Amino acid sequence: MATTVTAAHHFIWRHLYASIQAAQTPTSKLKFVTPDKENSMSTLWQAEDFKQICSRESLTKKAADIQKTIVVKEHERARYDFDPTMFYENRFWNRRPDGTLINKYHRTIYILDFKRSSDRNKDFLRVKEDEANEQHKSIIEALRATAPDWTFEQINFVGGRRGAVVEDDFYNMLEKLNVQAGKRDKHDSVGACATHMRSA
Hints:
The protein has helices at about 1-20, 40-45, 50, 55-65, 75-80, 85-95, 125-145, 165-175, 190-200; strands at about 30, 100-105, 110-115, 150-160. With about 200 residues, it is of the alpha+beta class. The two termini are about 15 Å apart.
């Protein structure tokens, strides 16, 4: 069951991500850095576009300070006990956003996350939104502290397995990501992803 749910999650996200990329406005300057798969922060910072934002060394220092404020989970305890400093650095650089977009002309980076959950509980959207923000807060906070002349924003796509999705929020996010207005309609490729969230 878990394998099926995970497969459905990845299928929907890949379709949504590819559709957003394909439906960009002609004037969009967004670059889809991870079009085919998730990349770790370590991999991202090997690309020249990211090296120009800030050095790996300066980002590591800020990230380690922020990582220290995040609870060490039980399954992480052995690695933390072996070398706390290396643990904090590795935990940051191994983070894998679902998607990463960069607009170097506007000095903006979007970190994307996709969550699905049971929507039996009316608070599921808020819970999953909070979970996504907590998951990547070390990325956002470290980047903001290291490169204050850039804008870093996390965008979370959250859908319920029984079909719940806040359509206004969904379409507002598509607009922010430069999706053509005509492509946001529910009958088009990107808008249809709200329906895919319901059916997968």
